[in-house]
């Protein structure tokens, strides 16, 4: 069914006689069984108030359209959502609903927060076909339970987003990056922790062991960026490596590639994404024994490229965090599960919520934990 | 404010419940004497009072779990309580409840600068979280004005904000993990030292759920390196609308102030009479604060003042020193106290889109005439979180009711303007019955479904958040099942 309005969406959900495979632009490569239900036809920016830093858009609005509208006002999606297409080899058009449904955030997440922190309000259709709204279009809102956060990152398992409202931020005047060359993993993560612990408002902190580049990004007014770069240089002069600076253009190229994990796009193999405590990262990367790895979020995010079929979770063992199976053969992803299995208590709550929001169990069955 | 009738069966079992609680807690931690339970009869919404049946003061997660298990078995409602500073009645007891106070749970469990986090017991006060790390150059960002007294437990329950959340976000943006005890005594760990949930964002759901989903006993909080410095500029305008436009222009310009505070004429007058901060007498006053090194602050303030000058301010006062900064903040910080000198007041908390500021202020002024009650407005303008202070006389019969009716009209106006009933104080009992204004039945149903999953018996913090008529069907069967 071609969904052109929220009413169409309600009808499609109510009329469903089996499983539904819910998606936006389909760039994540998930293929839960069921009839495809795409919100790509629900498209368009409903409201944009640059002076209030807020935008409201239909869930299927292409991210590119949103970014173009924001760029005209010199604003942006500050959480820097990645584009999965090159890494996953998928086609399709990333949608704003998909970004929030999957809580997709990029390198700037460590400084400004995740997609979920920018989502202000949602409208969605639950599994019984009821239209539910929560939150709104204001920055501060504690009126009732925060279903906005619950919907962010729920991957279409609780309801199908029809509209999202979110916070945007002004683009900075410029950016630059400091590059420390020649550190090992542990030294690099320690250097990034020092930078993050400084008052210089680092907005990107990554380490690529292949190139031995430990990269720290600063954004803001020109004078402020050069001042902070200078101070960071002093701070890291004993970190053990050679220090260089990348200007705005070079910095932008690096972070765009970092955001999309471009380094793994050309090589075959599985790809995993590990969220952990930054200081645990070198130890976890060593345990994973991947063919290639790189760090973002000052170590809080590890990207792993492994031989096909590697059971990364078994190698990592029990740790504080979670590993997501991003790219791999469909049967392996089904077998191992895309998402990290949760503790019994959390799993029970998750199952309970799914049973209440989607009583027939029709949305993206089997994608996130076990349905009841 | 209507509260459900206490359950007689529960009240009749008081002695047994007390005895069972004394089996798992030291006697000094179980308060059941009627003279002593009175200390817990209200929070900072003092217009409503009701002593609880029992109050308990456990000291760790294990004791909390033991208490909840007993209350669950006995069918006793539980009202969790942080420091009791809620302005919304979030910790108001029912006569048949056990107050679960976390005040004795105030320890620091772990400080981790490398990963920029601290783990605390949730009875710890907001300010003392920063206190534990500030010597090492760090701070905890959310800063509700009650931060000297309020507990992290209450901050999490209400998703508290503060003056500086324009830049740093509110509690939910700074909370990384919790240990939570479910109503049946099960202990659940959610989140931790890593970022973002691996599955559903239960942490985001728990934060702001007003103690109705579980009792949070420990929390992992994000701490940040302290900025090199901070300084404000004060600006006065002859017109609210112009001040509103100035706020919007500053935000658009790409300067990200940590705070943009707004005061209107009634508030400025009251504050001047009380604190003598030397504020200009005008219609609207803004305080805009930025952070960074001295040179960075100078640069940002010059940009902000350039924008302000385009709006013909009647006063523009840039702070050049710590003393001048303190003088600028003095009036704002004493605004509530100043209004309290004039009369009793009720503090509202609606949020509106910044663009609606002039319209909403004009309407509040008109309504003030209609109701015959004075209002002062002092609020966080950068994010549209308003705090209208309605003055009334608590000793004058009918004045409180009139004030509440006026407050309800203002909150309805906020919703009409595209905003919400509460930006940082929470719903509690105060705004419970106004939830229908903001949410349709299906919206409330979805929220109540969450409560069904976490607390099927609806025993935790009953009769809050949801209009009584909406939640009745869920609360009644739970009681009938006894």
Please give a structural write-up.
- The complex is a heterodimer of chains A (372) and B (482).
- Chain A is α+β, with helices and mostly antiparallel strands and 372 residues long.
- Chain A has a 5-stranded antiparallel beta sheet.
- Chain A has helices spanning 6-14, 63-72, 85-88, 96-101, 109-112, 115-118, 147-151, 185-196, 222-235, 248-259, 281-288, 312-316, 330-336, 344-357, and strands spanning 20-23, 35-38, 45-49, 54-58, 75-76, 119-126, 131-135, 159-167, 169-170, 174-181, 202-208, 213-220, 242-246, 270-276, 292-296, 301-306, 321-327.
- The mean pLDDT of chain A is 95.
- With 482 residues, chain B is α+β, with helices and mostly antiparallel strands.
- Chain B is built from 18 helices and 18 strands.
- Chain B has helices spanning 8-12, 14-24, 34-37, 61-74, 126-133, 152-158, 165-168, 202-206, 240-252, 265-275, 294-309, 322-333, 335-342, 357-371, 399-416, 435-438, 441-454, 468-480; strands at residues 30-31, 54-56, 78-81, 98-101, 108-112, 117-121, 138-139, 175-181, 187-191, 215-222, 224-225, 230-237, 259-264, 284-291, 315-318, 344-347, 375-380, 388-392.
- Chain B has a 7-stranded antiparallel beta sheet with strand order 15-12-14-13-17-18-16, sandwiched between helices. A 5-stranded antiparallel beta sheet of chain B has the order 5-6-10-8-9.
- In chain B, β5 (108-112) and β6 form a beta hairpin.
- Chain B starts with 7 loop residues before the first helix and ends with a helix.
């Amino acid at each position: 069914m071609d969904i052109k309005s929220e009413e169409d969406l309600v009808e499609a959900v109510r009329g469903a006689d089996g499983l539904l495979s819910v998606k936006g632009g389909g760039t994540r490569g998930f293929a839960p069984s069921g009839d495809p239900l795409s919100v790509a036809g629900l498209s368009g920016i409903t409201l944009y108030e640059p002076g209030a830093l807020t935008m409201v858009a239909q869930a299927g609005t292409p991210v590119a359209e949103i970014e173009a509208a924001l760029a005209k006002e010199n604003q942006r999606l500050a959480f820097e959502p990645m584009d999965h297409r090159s890494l996953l080899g998928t086609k399709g058009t990333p949608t704003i609903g998909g970004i929030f449904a999957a809580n997709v955030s990029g390198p700037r997440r460590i400084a400004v927060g995740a997609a979920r922190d920018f989502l202000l309000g949602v409208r969605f259709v639950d599994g019984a076909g009821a239209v539910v709204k929560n939150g709104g279009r204001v920055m501060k809102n504690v009126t009732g339970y925060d279903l906005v956060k619950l919907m962010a990152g729920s991957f279409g398992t609780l309801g199908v987003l029809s509209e999202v409202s979110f916070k945007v931020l002004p683009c900075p005047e410029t950016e630059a990056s400091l590059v420390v060359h020649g550190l090992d993993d542990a030294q690099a993560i320690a250097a990034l922790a020092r930078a993050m612990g400084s008052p210089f408002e680092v907005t990107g902190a990554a380490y690529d062991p292949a190139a031995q580049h430990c990269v720290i990004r600063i954004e803001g007014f020109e004078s402020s960026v050069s001042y902070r770069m200078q101070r960071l240089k002093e701070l890291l002069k004993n970190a053990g490596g050679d220090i260089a600076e990348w200007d705005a253009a070079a910095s932008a190229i690096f972070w765009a590639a970092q955001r999309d994990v471009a380094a793994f796009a050309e090589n075959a193999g599985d790809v995993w994404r590990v969220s952990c405590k930054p200081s645990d990262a070198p130890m976890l990367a060593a345990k994973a024994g991947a063919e290639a790895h790189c760090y973002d979020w000052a170590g809080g995010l590890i990207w792993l490229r492994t031989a096909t079929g590697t059971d990364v979770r078994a190698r990592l063992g029990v740790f504080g965090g979670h590993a997501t199976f991003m790219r791999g053969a469909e049967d392996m992803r089904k077998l191992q599960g895309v998402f990290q299995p949760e503790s019994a208590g959390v799993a029970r709550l998750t199952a309970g919520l799914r049973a209440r929001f989607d009583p027939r169990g029709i949305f993206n069955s089997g994608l996130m934990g076990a349905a009841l | 404010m209507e509260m459900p009738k206490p359950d007689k069966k529960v009240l009749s079992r008081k002695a047994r419940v007390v005895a069972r609680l004394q089996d798992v807690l030291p006697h000094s931690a179980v308060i059941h004497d009627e003279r002593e339970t009175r200390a817990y009869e209200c929070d900072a919404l003092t217009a409503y009072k009701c002593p609880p049946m029992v109050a308990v003061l456990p000291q760790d997660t294990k004791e909390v779990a033991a208490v909840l298990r007993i209350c669950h078995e006995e069918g006793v409602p539980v009202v969790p309580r942080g420091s009791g500073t809620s302005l919304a009645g979030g910790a108001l007891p029912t006569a048949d409840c056990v107050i679960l106070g976390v005040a004795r749970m105030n320890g620091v469990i772990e400080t981790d600068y490398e990963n920029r986090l601290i783990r605390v017991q949730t009875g710890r006060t907001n300010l003392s979280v920063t206190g534990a790390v500030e010597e090492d150059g760090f701070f905890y960002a959310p800063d509700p004005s009650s931060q000297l007294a309020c507990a992290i437990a209450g901050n999490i329950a209400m998703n508290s904000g503060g003056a500086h959340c324009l830049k740093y976000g509110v509690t939910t943006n700074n909370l990384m993990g919790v240990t939570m005890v479910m109503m049946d005594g099960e202990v659940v760990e959610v989140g931790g030292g890593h970022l973002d949930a691996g599955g559903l964002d239960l942490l985001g759901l728990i934060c702001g759920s007003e103690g109705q989903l579980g009792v949070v006993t420990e929390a992992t909080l994000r701490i940040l390196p302290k900025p090199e410095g901070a300084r404000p500029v004060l600006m006065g305008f002859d017109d609210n609308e112009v001040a509103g436009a100035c706020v919007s222009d500053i935000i658009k310009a790409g300067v990200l102030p940590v705070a943009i505070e707004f005061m209107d004429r009634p508030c400025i007058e009251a504050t001047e009479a009380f604190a003598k901060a030397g504020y200009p007498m005008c219609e609207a006053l803004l305080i805009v604060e930025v952070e960074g090194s001295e040179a960075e602050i100078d640069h940002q303030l010059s940009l902000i003042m350039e924008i302000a000058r385009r709006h013909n301010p009647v006063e523009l006062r840039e702070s050049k020193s710590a003393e001048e900064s303190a003088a600028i903040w003095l009036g704002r910080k004493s605004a509530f106290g100043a209004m309290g000198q004039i009369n009793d007041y009720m503090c509202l908390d609606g949020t509106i889109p910044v663009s609606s500021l002039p319209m909403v202020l004009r309407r509040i002024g008109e309504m003030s005439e209609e109701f015959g009650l004075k209002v002062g407005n002092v609020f966080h303008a950068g994010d549209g979180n308003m705090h209208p202070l309605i003055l009334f006389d608590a000793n004058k019969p009918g004045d409180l009711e009139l004030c509440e009716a006026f407050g309800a009209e203002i909150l309805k106006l906020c919703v009409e303007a595209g905003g919400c009933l509460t930006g940082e104080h929470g719903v509690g009992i105060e705004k419970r019955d106004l939830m229908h204004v903001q949410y349709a039945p299906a919206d409330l149903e979805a929220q109540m479904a969450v409560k069904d999953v976490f607390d099927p018996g609806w025993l935790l913090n009953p009769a809050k958040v949801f209009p009584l008529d909406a939640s009745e069907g869920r609360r009644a069967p739970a009681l009938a099942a006894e």
